[in-house]
Design brief:
The protein is α/β, with parallel strands linked by helices and about 180 residues long. It is built from six helices and five strands; from the N terminus they run E-E-E-H-E-H-E-H-H-H-H. The chain has a five-stranded mixed sheet with strand order 3-2-1-4-5.
């Protein structure tokens, strides 16, 4: 299975393509789509869409693993990331690529086995799982590869459903 991992953003979109044979991962290619802050936002979205279409056409993934949107304190940034995420998902949908979404917690558990892992721990495990000499840069690229690993480890299995159930349980506990 060929998996395209995506860490969405509007300044930097990390992407990574992995081959997975249900046991081992092989790195096909990874990189980042970047847009200039001086470019009008609508043009940045067009650039992201066009570049994502090129990545999809070139590497022909079977599926896309993308991070679910997580709103922190800055809602404006979150909305802009959501718009970029939308054009990324549109590119995949138009090319017939099945889309799977994973939360940061799911990525941490799938890559490190620990839901409270820190970013550097996830990146170090990503490097080790993929047998890379160094953690890919920028960080968004390493995060995209972690998302692809997450789908390889959990996609199409009951584990992803169980993990989603655990998140709902944890969310309900935190609201009490």
């Amino acid at each position: 299975m060929r998996i395209l991992g995506i860490d969405p953003g509007y300044a930097i979109v990390g992407w990574g393509v992995l081959e997975f044979d249900n046991v081992h991962f092989d790195v096909v290619k990874y990189g980042a789509i970047t847009t200039d802050a001086e470019t009008p936002f609508d043009k940045r979205l067009c650039e992201i869409y066009d570049d994502m279409c090129v990545v999809i056409e070139k590497f022909r993934p079977d599926c896309m693993s993308i991070e679910k949107l997580f709103f922190n304190s800055n809602i404006t940034t979150g909305i802009d990331v959501a718009q970029a995420r939308g054009v990324i998902m549109l590119a995949a949908a138009q090319k017939g690529v099945k889309i799977y979404e994973y939360t940061p917690l799911q990525v941490k558990v799938a890559v490190t086995g620990y839901g409270h892992a820190e970013k550097h721990q996830v990146q170090e495990m990503t490097k080790n799982i993929l047998r890379l000499k160094a953690i890919p840069k920028p960080d968004d690229t390493a995060d995209a590869l972690a998302l692809a690993i997450t789908h390889g480890h959990t996609g199409g299995s009951r584990l992803s459903e169980i993990m989603r159930g655990n998140e709902v349980t944890q969310l309900n506990k935190s609201r009490k």
